[in-house]
Write a structure and sequence with these properties.
This protein has nine helices and nine strands. By secondary structure, the protein is α/β, with parallel strands linked by helices. The protein folds into two domains: about 180 residues, Rossmann fold (3-Layer(aba) Sandwich), CATH 3.40.50; about 70 residues, no CATH class. The strands form two sheets. A six-stranded mixed sheet has the order 5-6-7-3-8-9, sandwiched between helices. The two termini are about 35 Å apart. Bound molecules: adenosine-5'-triphosphate. The site of adenosine-5'-triphosphate has 13 residues, from strand 1, strand 2 and helix 1.
Length: about 260
């Protein structure tokens, strides 16, 4: 059954079992989820519950073993070939011998976009993450937070509507993370992209998301999908409000319920 016309990601009864030498690993089971255009969806759950695997299935880096999934109405493979998404990894994964500009424009080079156009788009992407002026620097000349912003710019360079982000700020200290959360939220509000974001942090999930998907330990199932209704131009101070704390409480309760389910 097709989801609404605005569904960017439509997942029904999806499961994924890895066959390993030690037997099957049930990574995902019975996952139903719709991500609509303009949504910011966070996935939160205990380590090993299949968050990365789910993102990788969306990106066509893993194949589901059961159920259905479509991205913009087509298969993940077709969506990947159409360059429907930008992917941001846990670590920045920048090539050390390339300048920031040449890292950011690498996908455009692969797409054989002419040099002038590449440079123009690279500048635009770097501006979106407030890294303009750093084009000629090399990754090692940038802080960890700046490197992660450069990797976001790389994912933005070809202007895909969907951004898949796998715990992009997990390795950063809290102050830097707060700042990048604010910047990412502004970027999302300005560009109207659809974001699927993996995190371990409850405040990060609640602050950033329009929908929070709480997952159980393996096999990863969806325990709760919490919709939020915060203003798009919210600042970090929203984290002190009763509404925010109430949502955070519900996420925590979901995670706790998932744990007892496993024991
Ligand atoms: N290629 C693979 N082969 C076998 N098992 C795998 C493979 N990839 C992932 N797994 C297993 O599938 C489960 C889900 O892994 P996944 O990385 O998706 O979890 P996660 O929720 O993202 O974890 P974390 O929060 O620690 O990053 C884990 O038990 C993991 O060991």
């Amino acid at each position: 059954m097709p989801a609404s016309a605005d569904a960017v990601v439509d997942i029904q009864k999806l499961s994924l079992t890895f066959q390993t030498a030690d037997g099957p690993v049930y990574a995902l089971s019975d996952v139903d989820l719709t991500i609509e255009r303009g949504d910011f969806v966070s996935f939160i759950g205990p380590s090993g519950c299949g968050k990365t695997t789910l993102l990788r299935v969306i990106a066509d880096l893993e194949k589901a073993t059961g159920g259905d999934i479509s991205i913009n109405g087509v298969s993940p493979q077709e969506a990947r070939e159409n360059r429907a998404y930008g992917y941001v990894f846990q670590a920045p994964a920048l090539l050390p011998w390339r300048s920031i500009e040449r890292n950011v424009t690498l996908p455009l080079e692969i797409m054989e976009i002419p040099r002038e156009e590449r440079i123009k788009r690279g500048h635009e992407a770097l501006k979106l993450v407030e890294l303009n002026g750093f084009e000629k620097k090399f990754p090692w000349q940038l802080s960890g937070g700046m490197q992660q912003r450069a990797s976001i710019a790389r994912a933005l360079s070809f202007d895909a509507d969907l951004l898949l982000m796998d715990e992009p700020f997990g390795a950063l200290d809290e102050i830097v993370r707060d700042h990048l959360n604010e910047q990412l939220l502004k970027l999302w509000a300005r560009t109207n992209k659809t974001v699927a974001f993996v995190t371990h942090s409850i405040p990060e999930a609640v602050y950033l998301s329009t929908k929070i998907v709480v997952m159980s330990p393996r096999p990863g199932r969806i325990i709760d999908v919490i919709k939020t209704d915060f203003p798009k131009d919210r600042g970090l101070d929203i984290r002190e409000t009763p509404e925010f704390l109430e949502v955070a409480h519900r996420v925590r309760e979901g995670l706790r319920a998932g744990h007892s389910y496993d024991e």
